[in-house]
């Protein structure tokens, strides 16, 4: 319910059934964090320029998605621990439906826990829609499909079906709907974690039928990584090459691979950023991002970012690497946020360095770097629209940046005083900003 508040280039895709104004998945209509919206306000706060603000039943890192007149959000009810699927009217903020999407399953028999770790809960993945149905996935393995009107179509729990996952942290990859399939990479350890998971290699790319939830294939995804470095929390990213070759980009386990979406067959792989696989605690969080014929991959912690060429086949050698970020001891890097491709440039938001950098995709040259303001972490991925970059930190502070020179255009606190762990990226659709904090979904503009 509403609560008043006082205070064409190759590789650029748009989901076929969505309009150019929709935001149908976590990284938007082009899968790169950008949108074509114009007229977005920058002089806003919790009440000024706010079209509506809807109360949320609990926190979650899932980004809102927008299709037509619907806004979809996943959440956990803090009181009951229920996994919720929510739909709001895009124009008014009226709650259209709030449905229990959970099966009650808790991996490893964790009782009422709502996440593997306090840093995140099971509502960390984002919803996704193909315009016919909307899917909600949760870190406990529940995957549920609804009509846009809220009728349940099917449900299954992937950890029941494929055994409990072996992850140190709460699993948070978001499903991808593309080419008539639902894709989810499950890149996990080859030994139990927290008493859960397999004791043998069990990483795979999963494809499901979006209409029924039936498994279409389960393709093994091999890796020589060790221990936590086998883990990936990244989302699969679609790509179409200049000659029409389609590939699904999967990153993690010290490598990036491109897969045929029809079969899951591995078309190519490049890596590694972890020489000799010596680092055993390099779990991967950022997803890949494509732009200007390159795919940008972020190695973990404070390691560099790598730009890989997209025209290869098989196992790529050094010639498959276009460049990597330089400038030690402080190369451009990102441990959690997925970079943005916008207006022909890569923008890398670093949570470990608390900086934002503009990078030339052809050469890797860093064209500017700014220090992000404030004392809170930046773990939501940046969004590009209307000639501006929009960033959100753990406290709910929004910073708007000019992509031309890094000038900060606006800073505003959208969270509550004691908010923390806000990590949902800002969505842009139909000329409005959609900002999720721990307690509120804001619609700004219009």
How would you describe this structure to a colleague?
It is built from one helix and 33 strands. Residues 1-12 have low confidence and may be disordered. It has one domain (50-445): YVTN repeat-like/Quinoprotein amine dehydrogenase (Methylamine Dehydrogenase, Chain H, 7 Propeller). The two termini are 20 Å apart. It has 446 residues and is mostly beta strands. The chain has a five-stranded mixed beta sheet, with no helix packed on it. Helix content is 1%, strand content 36%. The longest helix is centred in the middle third of the chain and has 5 residues, at 158-162.
Structure in a nutshell:
With 446 residues, the protein is mainly β. It has one helix at 158-162; strands at 50-55, 65-67, 70-76, 83-89, 95-100, 128-129, 133-137, 142-147, 152-157, 176-178, 181-186, 204-208, 215-220, 237-240, 246-252, 255-259, 266-270, 289-291, 294-298, 305-309, 314-315, 321-324, 340-342, 345-350, 355-359, 366-371, 383-385, 388-392, 397-401, 408-413, 427-429, 432-436, 440-445. It has one helix and 33 strands.
What topology does this entry show?
Elements: E1 50-55, E2 65-67, E3 70-76, E4 83-89, E5 95-100, E6 128-129, E7 133-137, E8 142-147, E9 152-157, H1 158-162, E10 176-178, E11 181-186, E12 204-208, E13 215-220, E14 237-240, E15 246-252, E16 255-259, E17 266-270, E18 289-291, E19 294-298, E20 305-309, E21 314-315, E22 321-324, E23 340-342, E24 345-350, E25 355-359, E26 366-371, E27 383-385, E28 388-392, E29 397-401, E30 408-413, E31 427-429, E32 432-436, E33 440-445
Parallel strand pairs: 17-21
Antiparallel strand pairs: 1-33, 2-3, 3-4, 4-5, 6-7, 7-8, 8-9, 10-11, 11-12, 12-13, 14-15, 15-16, 16-17, 18-19, 19-20, 20-22, 23-24, 24-25, 25-26, 27-28, 28-29, 29-30, 31-32, 32-33
């Amino acid at each position: 319910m509403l609560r008043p508040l006082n205070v064409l280039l190759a590789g650029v895709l748009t989901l076929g059934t969505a309009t150019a104004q929709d935001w149908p998945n976590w990284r938007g209509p082009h899968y790169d964090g950008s949108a074509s919206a114009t007229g977005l306000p920058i002089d806003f706060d919790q009440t000024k320029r706010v079209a509506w603000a809807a109360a949320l039943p609990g926190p979650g890192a899932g980004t809102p998605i927008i299709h037509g007149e619907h806004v979809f959000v996943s959440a956990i009810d803090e009181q009951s621990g229920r996994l919720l699927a929510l739909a709001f009217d895009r124009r008014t903020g009226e709650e259209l439906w709030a449905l229990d999407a959970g099966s009650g399953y808790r991996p490893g028999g964790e009782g009422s826990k709502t996440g593997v770790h306090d840093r995140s809960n099971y509502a960390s993945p984002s919803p996704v829609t193909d315009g016919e149905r909307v899917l909600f996935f949760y870190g406990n393995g529940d995957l549920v499909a609804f009509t846009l009107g809220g009728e349940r179509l099917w449900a299954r729990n992937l950890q029941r079906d494929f055994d409990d996952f072996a992850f140190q942290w709460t699993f948070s990859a978001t499903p991808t709907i593309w080419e008539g399939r639902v894709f989810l990479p499950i890149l996990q350890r080859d030994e139990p974690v927290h008493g859960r998971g397999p004791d043998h290699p069990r990483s795979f790319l999963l494809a499901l039928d979006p209409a029924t939830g039936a498994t279409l294939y389960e393709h093994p995804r091999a890796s020589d990584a060790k221990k936590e470095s086998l883990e990936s929390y990244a989302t699969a990213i679609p790509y179409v090459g200049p000659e029409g070759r389609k590939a699904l980009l999967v990153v993690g386990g010290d490598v990036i691979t491109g897969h045929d979406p029809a079969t899951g067959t591995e078309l190519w792989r490049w890596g590694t950023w972890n020489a000799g696989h010596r680092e055993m605690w390099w779990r991967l969080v950022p997803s890949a991002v494509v732009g200007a014929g390159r795919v940008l991959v972020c190695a973990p912690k404070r390691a560099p970012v790598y730009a890989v060429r997209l025209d290869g086949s098989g196992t790529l050698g050094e010639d498959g690497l276009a460049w990597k970020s330089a400038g030690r001891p402080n190369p451009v890097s990102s441990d959690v946020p997925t970079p943005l491709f916008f207006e022909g440039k890569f923008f890398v938001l670093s949570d470990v360095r608390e900086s934002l950098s503009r990078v030339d995709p052809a050469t890797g040259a860093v064209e500017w770097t700014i220090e992000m303001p404030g004392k809170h972490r930046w773990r939501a991925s940046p969004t590009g629209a209307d000639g501006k970059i929009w960033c959100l930190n753990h406290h709910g502070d929004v910073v708007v940046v000019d992509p031309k020179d890094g000038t900060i255009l606006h800073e505003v606190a959208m969270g509550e005083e004691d908010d923390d762990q806000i990590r949902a990226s800002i969505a842009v659709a139909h000329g409005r900003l959609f900002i999720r904090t721990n307690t509120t979904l804001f619609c700004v503009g219009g």
